[in-house]
Design brief:
mainly alpha
Length: about 210
């Protein structure tokens, strides 16, 4: 056995192993940057009006690197949107078994959390073709929202007294309220005050955060 070669191989192996986490971290940063750039461009111009080439230019990314992360623009759209709903589903699952007020405030506070985690992805409006990509996760999200408010309705703390009405208000308003206040220094306080005033009876309100 050639000990010199063997030791060189071991050294190279250790060096590769030591570099691998850094390489993986760098690639993940690049991937997250593409997700952020893509989400912003899709929001500004519409998904159908943005090409992969434009995303590559804005992100400073090589075509080969992009396709090592995503198979297509539709795949990029999926990876921008699906985690938002997945995170929402997980968050609402964790609210199961809590008090009615904790459930409502948990759902209210979910949207600022999603904004802080996913940014512009929260605001994307998608057409029929894109919806098909995330239909399964979206349906799970809606089911969890229904479970949350179905359990709350009987507690009598919903301002309109209806789980169904409350869910519609959240679907139509929560993200738009985030959009209004997101750049304000008092973002979370203003957002929560607006949402609790819309959704909860006065005696169910909590002190300002």
């Amino acid at each position: 056995m050639n000990m010199t070669v063997s030791m060189a191989d071991e050294a190279a192996s250790r060096n590769l192993t030591s570099r691998s986490p850094r390489v993986a971290q760098r690639r993940e940063r690049m991937r997250q940057n593409v997700l952020r750039v893509g989400a912003k461009m899709f929001l500004d111009r519409g998904i159908e009006n943005v090409s992969v080439e434009e995303i590559l230019a804005a992100a400073g990314l090589a075509r080969s690197t992009f396709y090592s992360f995503f198979t297509s623009k539709r795949d990029l759209v999926f990876h921008i949107l699906d985690p938002v709903f997945q995170t929402g589903v997980t968050h609402m699952k964790d609210l199961q078994g809590k008090s009615p007020a904790d459930v409502v405030y948990g759902v209210i506070d979910m949207y600022p959390m999603l904004w802080e985690k996913y940014g512009e992805a929260l605001f994307l409006r998608i057409g029929h073709d894109e919806f098909a990509l995330i239909a399964k996760t979206h349906n799970q999200y809606v089911e969890m929202l229904d479970k949350c408010f179905g359990a709350v309705e009987a507690a009598g703390i919903l301002r309109n007294g209806s789980s169904a009405h409350t869910q519609r208000l959240i679907a139509r308003c929560a993200i738009e309220v985030v959009r209004v206040y997101r750049n304000d220094p008092n973002f979370k306080r203003l957002y929560r005050a607006t949402m609790e005033g819309m959704l909860l009876t006065d005696d169910a309100h909590r002190p300002a955060i």
